[in-house]
Structures are given as structure tokens and as C-alpha cells.
Specification:
The structure is a homodimer of 247-residue chains.
Chain A: H1 29-41, H2 45-50, E1 53-57, E2 62-64, E3 72-78, E4 81-86, E5 92-98, E6 103-104, E7 115-118, E8 122-128, H3 129-138, H4 140-166, H5 169-183, E9 192-193, H6 198-205, H7 209-221, E10 225-229, E11 232-235, H8 238-245
Antiparallel strand pairs in A: 1-8, 2-7, 3-6, 3-8, 4-5, 4-7, 9-11, 10-11
Helix pairs in contact in A: 3-4, 5-7, 5-8, 6-7
Chain A binds a DNA duplex (30 and 30 nucleotides) through helix 7.
Chain lengths: 247, 247
Amino acid sequence: MRTAGNTGGPGGEGASFAPVRCGVLCEDCRVRAVAVCRAMGGPALDELEAITTRIRLAAGRTLFDEGDPADGLFTLTEGVVKIFKMLADGRRQITGFLLPGDFLGLAFFRSYAYSAEAVTDALLCRFPRDRFMALLERHPALEKELLSRASSELAAAQEQMLLLGRKSAKERVASFLLALARRHPGAGAAPVPLPMSRYDIADYLGLTIETVSRELQAARASGVIDLPDRHHFRVVDRQRLLAAAAL
Amino acid sequence: MRTAGNTGGPGGEGASFAPVRCGVLCEDCRVRAVAVCRAMGGPALDELEAITTRIRLAAGRTLFDEGDPADGLFTLTEGVVKIFKMLADGRRQITGFLLPGDFLGLAFFRSYAYSAEAVTDALLCRFPRDRFMALLERHPALEKELLSRASSELAAAQEQMLLLGRKSAKERVASFLLALARRHPGAGAAPVPLPMSRYDIADYLGLTIETVSRELQAARASGVIDLPDRHHFRVVDRQRLLAAAAL
DNA sequence: CCGAGCTTTTGATCTGGGTCAATGCCGCAG
DNA sequence: CTGCGGCATTGACCCAGATCAAAAGCTCGG
């Protein structure tokens, strides 16, 4: 069995950002951060702001590891973060790619149930666990928001279980591309960023990098998608991509 | 590809119970129901009781289907219920087996994201959605309980994604048996009920019935487990079962 | 007790995707 | 510009688990 080695990434301890990749990071991070917190906090915004620290994370850096004491909660404001679990022998399953606006770190036990690592340079808001929980006590609306997010995450997880348990390689790749395209705000024909490596895609879809590569090339060859470069794709024939995804 | 046909089950419209199977159902259902609701409701117990209707569901009967309007929430008090998603061609992924005390039906959208069906005869408490939501409004403790449950379900879902994406057939079956044994209250050496069919196990583990059967027989042959009958097993060598599960 | 209709087990074969092995590509350092 | 190291692609081969097939148990109605 192959070891999904941690690539480690080049960036130094989250200190300074590498040049922006894939257009995922934008300039006015502060504006975005506030917008995300507003969506998150609602009426509790001011208090939420008060306990927030902003965190920069260079691509490849670890936010936390499975089993670490869960003393913080986070919202992602810029960039892409992956969350994953690993087996003792190094096999890895990425359980999600988080995009701006996503929440992570909720652990009703004392330690994180998964690891989190930046795919691209990322910016997050961090809330200390105890203070956040106290805030939750005073703001039921915040709790409701959290419940709603947890419940849609659960639905996504079930969808992914269906993919992992019952779909073919071709269907998995097609489903993945469609999900990315759906979440990408840009217009129909614009290229969609594919910021993660083939390794990450493979570990998300329960495949190998070779199979991911083959399926992507096959989809390109059959004219379903276009691959302008390694980290972008364009949906050319949405009908056939939908059919291939077996939704 | 093989169709995971709905077995339909013999029981008539949830009217009367077939004889108890696997010892999953006990006699004083009312006592259990109250106990479960208490765990669920905490201080809101009285109000929760007031909006509760008890539901009996014969083995094989459907509680609700994916896409149905989500007008009810449920707690399972007796029996086993499976929740699953299906593809258009009949492939099925069971995303969970629910045991007494488990909650189901939370849908922050207007329709259920999955189907639910009784594995054994089952007894549930049903709460009308709107009334339950109103109750949630007045009882933050209830909301907190729900959030805590959703978050541990999410952790379980991620564990299952790891299993489906990265574990071998042998590891999947071993993990499944261990999880069942862990949830079973009885003492160490007592046989653990295995109320679901091989078909259900296969659709939960992303395998075929033949592979499940082969792995179970192999585990029995190697002395790791004992299979007194089709619907019970006993952990004989916990160390080796743990090792086989690749936790 | 018998037989129909199941579920489960067991055996034989096939194949999708994994593994192994080059080769190509691209970005960065010198 | 050149070489190096890390992705990504491509090809050849292999194997875990699917598929196909058949036999063996259960269970239930009569």
C-alpha cells in the first residue's frame, strides 16, 4: 500500500504569503473577513469580533492535527483548507475541502476528530473555544446558525459516502468537478480553479493519482471538459458531465 | 451493475409486530421511550412529551424517503433503523444504522436528504417539525443537545468516509464488527446481535454480499470471531480483530 | 412434513482500478 | 540558460473484489 506522504509545503511558518495562486486569495482580506463573520455571527457580531484573532496560513501548513486539544474554532475567510483523517500506515482520506465562509473545528469532545491543512495560502478567523461556547450560551441565533451548518455538512458527508461506497472512478471525478463548478461563483464558461494537487483529489475521491489523471484526461479527450492548465478546468458539455456523475 | 432491490418486508403497514428478533425489542417500550425522550429533552421534557406521537414500524417498512417533505423529526426508542441514499440505477449506500436513543430527520431544508427504513420492528417518537422548531426556540438546552448529536454524527460520518475510501474489505468488516460490539451494552463474551441482512451490511460497507460473507467466514475460520447463527457474532480474539480493523 | 422463496455460502472467472515504472512538464535556484 | 526536484501523465501488468453461477440453509404457509 502506498503512503500518502505529507508534502509539507515550502511556506515558512505561516509568516509571509507566497504569490497568489489560482486567484483564490484577494486583496482586501479584512473586508471579506468581516463579511464572513457577519454571516456567521448575525446579532452576536460585535462580541464575536471581540474574541476573534486573524490567522494566516501558508499553503501546505497545518492548522491542527487529529487528536490535538480542540481549543479553537475557525471560519475560513480566504483560500482553501482541506480536512482529513489518516490511518496508522499513512493512508489518508480527505473528508472535505473548505472554501471561504466555511466553518471548522467544532468538536464536542476535547480534541479534534480530524486534521486541517491549508491547500492554498489561507486566512482564517479564530475563536477560543471557551469564549465561543460562552457566547453561544447568550446567543441562540448563533447556535441555530451552527446547527444549520452542521446539518448541511452532514448531508454533504452522506453524499460523499454514496460517492465513495458506490460510484465508479469516472463518476467520482465527474461528481467532483460538478461540485467544484457549482461552488465557484464565476459565470458559466469561465475556468474553474482546481487549487489542490492530484494527490489531494485522489485522497478525497478514494482513488489513486494515476486514476484521477487518467479520468481527467479521458474527460478532456471526449470533449466534456477543457483543461487549460493543471489547476483549472472548464465545463464544456454540462449535460454529459452530469450524466457521467450518475447523480 | 446490481440492483439493491428494496426487500419490502412482510409486515403489514406497521400495524402489528412480528415476533421479536435478535432481542432488539424489549417489552416495556413506554418506559424506554420516556427514558430516551428525557435524554433528548432535558428540561423541555414535558413540552416535548406533549407534541410526541409514538410510531410503530414493522421490519422492512419505510419511515420516509429521500426527497419527502421533512415535516417530522424522530427519536428511535426500540429496534434498528437504517438510513440510506440511492442512485437512479438502484445502487444504494447505507449511511448509518440507528439504535435506540438515536435521533433522525433533522433537515434544515424542506425535504429529507436520505431515506429511512426499519431493519427490525421499531418504535419511534415523532415530533412535528414546526412545533419542534418552536420548542427549540424556547429551549436552548435542547438546541445544544441537538448540536452535540449532529457533531458526533459528523465525526462518525468522517470515520465512515475513511473506511469507504481507504480500507480493504477485511478492514471494513472488522471495523464494522468492532463498532457494533462497542455499541452493544452486553458484557464482553455475550453474542452481539447482527440484525441486518448481509445485503444491508454490504451496502453499508461499500462491498457486495459475497465479499461480506467471505470475510465473515474467513474471520470465523481464523478464530477471530464466532458466528453462532446468521444474526449474532461473538468477539473471540479482540486483539486480532482490532489489528484487522486498521484503526 | 413438504416445498417455495428467500438469504447466505461457496466456487470459478473477470475486470476496474491499483501498482510499478518510465517519461514529460514546470517552476525555481543558481 | 541549465539543471534539479516535485508534480503529472502515460503505459504495462496485476490483483482485490465484483460478477456470475450454483448449492445449501432457513422460514413460513399449508
